[in-house]
Design a protein that fits this description.
The chain has two domains: 2-139 and 313-341, Quinone Oxidoreductase, Chain A, domain 1 (Alpha-Beta Complex), CATH 3.90.180.10; 156-289, 3-Layer(aba) Sandwich (Rossmann fold), CATH 3.40.50. 26% of the residues lie in helices and 26% in strands. It contains nine helices and 18 strands.
Length: 343
């Protein structure tokens, strides 16, 4: 099969083509697994962190990609949830132990044996992939393959972030950073909380314009003060500065949800403003982090997305152009979500 593989950690400021084309054997599904012929795979910021070693893969070489849509090609022994030809998706959560106290409570995201697609197991930058069938999801018919791909990560993690924000209808919501996940959260919030207003903080005027087009009440730079204090803010940036600025923008008793798999090293942070406890964190403000996603998040979000329905803004690329898509993502040339066409 054709694939784009990462053989080692790369510096993207120097190496603009970190992924190499390769021909690999088609993987065979094991017990409880299904073989998927991949049609689309979304491109995520987390792949940049994997490539540059901030969230290093647990094995090399590896096939990246964790927003996978395709059709079941073959089922392994004891795998019977899906029929050959059925359309399925695979998300960031690739497996968990299923036995620990977290798994037994439906919180597989906190399992010590959590395994991520495209980081710990080969992902979707290839023509085929395998996954345990319990971590595959039926895709609602309302979505095309390209529309469905970003829902499996940007959408599902955005859904979990919005849930953790504890928003009530009429509460004001802030979004710091406005990439693939942010634009889907804005659409979700508009549907679930019609009386709420959404305020967007972003580094570029293009992203701020896009946010206003999608219905944001206000969109400004990261450093700007919003016109009112906010009940909740979801931060999707890899930097520390927006965290402190977001805390300042919160209403008393407000909650900041940090939806980021990692943050920059404090000693390397640019213009990191000091945290003033009385000004920034006092008055019962909260900070909550998002750690991965659960199976339940994916299932519930796909159902909600079909009900709305959410139509992600997408840009499509050939598999062979994966490096171009990643470079544009790094340079913040983004409008919505980037998706690789495998077939």
């Amino acid at each position: 099969m054709k694939a784009m593989i990462l053989k080692g950690i790369r510096d993207l400021s120097v190496d603009k083509t970190p992924l190499e084309p390769a021909r690999l054997p088609v993987p065979a599904p094991g017990r409880g697994e299904i073989l998927i012929r991949v049609s689309r795979c979304g491109v995520c910021h987390t792949e940049l962190d994997e490539i540059e070693g901030r969230t290093p893969p647990s094995k090399l070489p590896i096939v990246l990609g964790h927003q996978i849509v395709g059709r079941v090609e073959k089922a392994g022994e004891d795998a019977g949830r899906f029929r050959p030809g059925e359309r399925v998706g695979v998300a960031w959560i690739n497996s968990a132990c299923g036995r620990c106290k977290f798994c037994l409570q439906g919180m597989e995201n906190l399992c010590d044996d959590f395994s991520a697609t495209g980081r710990d197991a080969d992902g979707g930058y290839a023509e085929y992939t395998v996954v345990r069938e319990k971590f595959a999801y039926g895709i609602p018919e309302v979505f095309s393959d390209s529309e469905a791909a970003p829902l499996l990560c940007a959408g599902a993690i955005g859904y979990r972030s919005l849930w953790l924000a504890g928003l009530k209808d009429g509460d004001s919501l802030g979004l710091t950073g406005f990439g693939a996940s942010g634009h889907l959260v804005l659409k979700m919030a508009g549907y679930r909380y019609p009386a709420s207003k959404v305020f967007v903080f972003s580094r570029t005027e293009e992203e701020r314009r896009f946010a206003r087009e999608l219905g944001a009440e206000w969109a400004g730079a990261i450093e700007e003060e919003p016109p009112e204090k906010l009940h909740a803010i979801i931060d999707t940036t890899p930097a520390w500065k927006p965290v402190v600025l977001a805390l300042r923008a919160l209403e008393k008793g407000g909650r900041l949800v940090i939806n980021a798999i990692r943050k920059e090293d404090r000693d390397k942070a640019e213009s990191f403003p000091g945290l003033d406890y009385a000004r920034d964190l006092w008055m019962e403000k909260e900070i909550k982090s998002v750690a991965n996603i659960t199976r339940r998040d994916v299932v519930e979000f796909l159902s909600l997305a079909a009900e709305i329905p959410i139509r992600p803004e997408i840009e499509e690329y050939r598999l062979e152009d994966a490096n171009k898509a990643l470079l544009e993502l790094r340079e913040r040339r983004i409008r919505g979500a980037k998706v690789l066409k495998i077939e």
